[in-house]
Specification:
This protein is of the alpha+beta class. It has 16 helices and 18 strands. It is about 35% helix and about 20% strand. It has a 7-stranded antiparallel sheet with strand order 15-12-14-13-17-18-16, with helices on both faces. Strands 5-6-10-8-9 form a 5-stranded antiparallel sheet. A hairpin with a 4-residue loop joins strand 17 and strand 18. The structure holds flavin-adenine dinucleotide (FAD).
Length: about 450
């Protein structure tokens, strides 16, 4: 019996299994632009169907690559060998919004923005806000422990996951967590799956914490002549006990790329931008915004503020227009998402600037300054072997500098297969061995998303 026939015999329909070359091409890639070649792409609609797929895969030793929207930036859902892509996008129901316990129960294929909008209608907020929220799925967010601009105040996806239903690689179905505010019974398996990048189990149902939506928000765009002054300002806000809900920063390369397209004019001296947002009850918001304006009065070359949604959106354009705008600098980019302790931001940016000079490649830095997560974009032409070699060298040196400064290889995009070779830079052989034993306990035959996170055997 073919694999497709086995799947149909175990309860999937013909329409839930794609095997045309066009479909397999579509489901072989993610946002890294890598492309693998699966045998089949399968679209289960129930947990029982996911379990049936895994039982067959386990019996036949067929690799399975779980997939949400394929917006991952580290190759997590790319099928690196023959096998099945398991797309969870057909499981897209918001099952419950529990207004008494402030929780939601969702299937993994729910789009993040759709959940945010659904709970907002009840005056609630689901805080995690990856920039990909209009298309990425909650399942993918949980598997990557996705973060976003609001992480500085509200934390990342993992901080809101209270329980999971998971199909294990052998097809068993388990439940973790519950709706209790306090719950410490046994190992915290929920958070072992959070950020496990689809290597330990397939997440089929998610219990999420919600919070009351803030009544007011104010946005400030602050332009600085010096990057150090901007970094210092973030530290001083925190020292003054102001935790903005967002503190995004853009470096001078980013400013050069977007300057002409902005709906407001920026002084020529502006070399670093901070987009700061405070939220909460109206009194707190106006007090905190006033305190920030006072703090930066003598430091900024421009301060713009906005309270209503349309004006705030104009200020956000500086940040939102960035990714397409930097494509003008070079045809390709190597995009990494290092994170360092907040206090190490100036040091790491100075090191990156030096690496940029040494490799003669522009390196554009922007990101979530409030939580130390920086998107580092090495700009190059991959058709030029000289630039490719220098780009790879730049990435190695950036990772080494990051770890030296107490940072991590990824603040939010995960390791996947793009950073697996660098994993031993961050973790000792003993730590990696423990992680590999965890993987083996869940997936003894290594069929679930093989080739991710751990360094290739010969590296
Ligand atoms: C323009 C853009 C902006 C982005 N901005 C951000 C950002 O601000 N913050 C951020 O954190 N990320 C960001 N990302 C990266 C990406 O959107 C996130 O990693 C997101 O969480 C991936 O979700 P997805 O549904 O696309 O998952 P996929 O890319 O399909 O999969 C990601 C990983 O999750 C696993 N997986 C997916 N679903 C399941 C499941 N149900 N069970 C088990 N494993 C599963 C996959 O195997 C894979 O390892 C951005 C990406 C783009 C393209």
């Amino acid at each position: 019996m073919t694999l497709k026939q086995q799947l149909i015999t175990s309860g999937l329909t013909d329409g839930q299994i794609l095997d045309s070359p066009e479909a397999l091409l579509c489901y072989g890639y993610d946002a890294t632009r890598q492309c693998g070649q699966p045998q089949l792409a399968v679209f289960p609609e129930t947990t029982a169907q996911v379990a049936a797929v895994m039982k067959i895969a386990d019996r036949e030793s067929i690799p399975v690559f779980p997939r949400g929207a394929g917006s991952g930036m580290s190759g997590g859902s790319v099928p690196v060998s023959k096998g099945m892509v398991l797309s969870l996008t057909s499981m897209k129901n918001i099952i419950e919004i529990d207004l008494d316990n402030l929780m939601a129960v969702v299937e993994p294929g729910v789009i993040t923005l759709e959940l945010q909008e659904a709970v907002m209608r009840h005056g609630l907020m689901y805080p995690p806000d990856p920039a990909s929220l209009a298309f990425s799925t909650i399942g993918g967010n949980v598997a990557e422990n996705a973060g976003g601009p609001r992480a500085v105040k509200y934390g990342v996806t993992g901080n809101y996951v209270r329980g999971l239903e998971v199909v294990l690689p052998n097809g068993d179905i388990i439940n973790t967590g519950n709706k209790c505010v306090k719950s410490v019974s046994g190992y915290d398996l929920t958070h072992l799956f959070v950020g496990s990048e689809g290597t330990l189990g397939v997440i089929t149902r998610i219990l999420l914490q919600l919070v009351p939506a803030p009544a007011a928000t104010e946005t400030l765009l602050l332009a600085f002549a010096e990057m150090e002054t901007a970094a210092q300002t973030i530290t001083e806000m925190v020292r003054n006990r102001i935790i903005p809900s967002t503190t995004e920063f853009l470096d001078h390369h980013s400013i050069a790329a977007i300057r002409d397209a902005l709906p407001f004019s920026l002084p020529t001296e502006a070399r670093t931008l901070l987009l700061v947002e405070v939220d909460g009850d109206p009194d707190t918001v106006s007090r905190e915004a006033a305190a920030i304006r006072q703090l930066v009065a003598s430091r900024c070359v421009l301060v713009l503020t906005a309270t209503d949604k349309a004006d705030r959106e104009l200020l956000w354009q500086a940040r939102r227009s960035l990714s397409p705008a930097i494509a003008k600098i070079a045809p390709h980019k190597i995009n990494e998402d290092i994170a360092v302790p907040r206090s190490a931001i100036p040091a790491v940016l100075n090191r990156i600037e030096a690496i940029s000079r040494a490799t003669a490649l522009p390196i554009v830095c922007f990101g979530h300054a409030g939580d130390g997560n920086i998107h580092v974009n090495v700009m190059l032409d991959k058709n030029n072997p000289h630039q490719t070699a220098h780009g790879e060298q730049a990435v190695r040196e950036i990772f080494a500098a990051t770890i030296e400064l107490g940072g991590t290889l990824s603040g939010e995009h995960g390791i996947g297969n793009t950073k697996s070779a660098f994993f031993p830079l961050e973790w000792s052989p003993e730590t990696i061995a423990v992680m590999q034993r965890v993987k083996k306990a869940f997936d003894p035959h290594n069929i679930l998303n093989p080739g991710k996170i751990f360094p290739p055997a010969n590296s």
